[in-house]
Every structure is written in structure tokens, then in C-alpha cells.
Amino acid sequence: MTKIAFIGLGNMGGPMAANLVKAGHAVTGFDLSEASRNAAAKTGVSVAGSIAQAVREAQCVITMLPASTHVLYVWDELLGFVDPGTLIIDSSTIDVESARKVHDFADKAGCPSLDAPVSGGTAGAAAGTLTFMVGGSDGAFSRGKHILESMGKKIVHCGDVGAGQAAKICNNMILGISMAGVCEAFVLAERLGLSHQALFDVASTSSGQCWSLTTYCPVPGPVPTSPANNDYKPGFTASLMLKDLKLSQQAASASGAATPMGAQAAQLYSLFEKLGHGGEDFSALIRMLRGNEEATAG
Ligand code: NAD
């Protein structure tokens, strides 16, 4: 049993903290949102009134926050209250540079740290089947692995500090591009009079097969658990997809990598957000591709 503080109990952090409780860890959580705090309390998380209160006596602190600004702010604060030697893990998706910066904060406070972003979405968070992509020293990884195993089924040590975020950004660029491609294929099929099910039956067992099609199908019917069957309620919001695509483009430009398809996907999601759909699941992009909403984009 490890005493764990969990900061950020939202769509992902809430179920992740619940799985730590189920695995027998003592979890104290904090979130700015009252609704998230109340939901976490129902799953056995002991809810604290502040970050300071949550991290006091913790042997491990995990953060699951929206973006790098939140992570920089929260790590700066929490490192003032933890004992040296406390393992600090960030599972948010953020840019590599900020990830390295917070590792540096932790290092100065005498704390080992890991960047450990995840893949698998809210369903994976609830089922405890996330994939963790981990960056950090061998020592920090061997301390954190068993904790991450309570929330995920695959834990990959990608390399030193920042390597987890690098892997996450590359993975999500593939996801943004592949979802746009699958949406386009369904729109084309509709225009050609081909049923959704027929395209799915062929492509899911042919060379068009990919996660965006077989697990997260953007049309209702073929995959009953996909957000398309629930009026595109997220899931993974289009705004978060856009955030990750922007991170990939920032990293591509800083490293000189050519990513023209990633740039195109970023433009599509940027337009989709401008049209007011940022809070919808990212697979709802298919609605924009079907229509002529571009004409009204601001
Ligand atoms: P979310 O917005 O549902 O949850 C974030 C939580 O952080 C919110 O409850 C918010 O109140 C809280 N928060 C913000 N600032 C805080 C602070 N200073 N102190 C305490 N709490 C604070 O977001 P999410 O969907 O859980 O995503 C979290 C991270 O995981 C993001 O970086 C996202 O890119 C990544 N991610 C999300 C998914 C997904 O499917 N939702 C999948 C993989 C990765």
C-alpha cells in the first residue's frame, strides 16, 4: 500500500484515482471543481481541501491536469509541501519542454519524477487498461511502475525525462490524422451510396483497419461503445485533440521534422473548434466534413 496524492480528478483523473483505491492504495485527492471532488469521494478517495493538504505525507503524487500551464503551476506549488524523496508523476499530456522543466523543479526539491502520459481514453481509465508512456530515470521508473500498473495494462519506459511526452505527441498525431481519414472515408461512402456497416465490415478487416475505425468508429452502429452512438458526447474532446496536434506541430517545427499531414489535421480541428464544437468528441469532425460549415467560420 502506497500513500498517493492525486491532483486533477476530472474525466481521466477521477477513474484513475478510483482504480488506485481499488488496488489497495490510500489515495488523497484534490481538484478545483467541487463536482469532481464529490465524484471522487464516492469512489473511496479521501478528498483534501487544498494541494498542500493532499500531498502532505504522500509517498507519491500524481497530477492529471488539462495543459502545461496547470502542470507548471501545480508542481511549483506542491513541491513546497512534499518530503524530499517523494515520487512525483505527471500523466497529463503536455509539451516536452514543459515536461523537462517540471522534472527540473522536482530534481531541485530532491524528488524523483516521471512524465507518464496515457493513451486509452476515458473508457481505458475506467477499466484500468491505459497505456502509460513513461520518461525518467531507471530508478524513478522502477519505483513508479507498480503504481502505474494499478491504472494501466501496458507500461512502456520510453527513455529519459520528456520521452513519455514525445511518444504521446507522436501517437496522438497519428490519431488525429487517422480519425480525419476515417471520417472522410465514411462521408465519401455516404455519397457513393455505400452503407456504414458495409464500409466497416470491409475496412475493419482490410488495409484501412485502425483504432479510429475499429474502437472509436465515428458513425453510430458498427461499434456500439463509440461516442457516435451517444450524440458525440466526449470521450476525448475536439479541443484536447487540437491541443495535442498543436503540440506535435510545435515539436515538429522545433526539431525540423516534416509533418504535412499533422499540419492538415491541426487545421481541420482548429476550424472545427472555431465553429463552436470544441466540447464535442473529436470523432464529431465527421459532421463538419459532411456539411458546408466552413462558410460560416470566423
Ligand atoms: P478534465 O478537464 O476532465 O480534468 C482536468 C481536471 O483538472 C479538472 O477537473 C480541473 O478542475 C482540474 N484542475 C485544473 N487546474 C487545477 C488545479 N490548479 N488544481 C487542482 N485541479 C485542477 O481533463 P481530462 O480529460 O481528465 O484530461 C486530463 C489530461 O489527460 C489532459 O492533459 C488530456 O490531454 C489528457 N488525456 C485525456 C484523455 C481523454 O480521453 N479525456 C485521454 C488521454 C489523455
Automatic annotation (TrEMBL):
EC nos:
1.1.1.31
The UniProt record lists the keyword NAD: yes
Entry-linked InterPro entries:
3-OH-isobutyrate_DH-rel_CS, 6-PGluconate_DH-like_C_sf, 6PGD_dom2, 6PGDH_NADP-bd, HIBADH, HIBADH-like_NADP-bd, HIBADH-related, NAD(P)-bd_dom_sf
A GO molecular function assigned to this protein is:
NAD binding
Which SUPFAM superfamilies does the protein's record reference?
6-phosphogluconate dehydrogenase C-terminal domain-like, NAD(P)-binding Rossmann-fold domains
Cite the annotated pathway.
Amino-acid degradation; L-valine degradation
Q: Where is the active site?
A: K168
Domain 6-phosphogluconate dehydrogenase NADP-binding as annotated: residue spans? 3-159
What biological process terms from GO does the record include?
A: L-valine catabolic process
Q: Which family does it belong to?
A: Belongs to the HIBADH-related family.
Query: Could you tell me what this protein is called?
Result: 3-hydroxyisobutyrate dehydrogenase
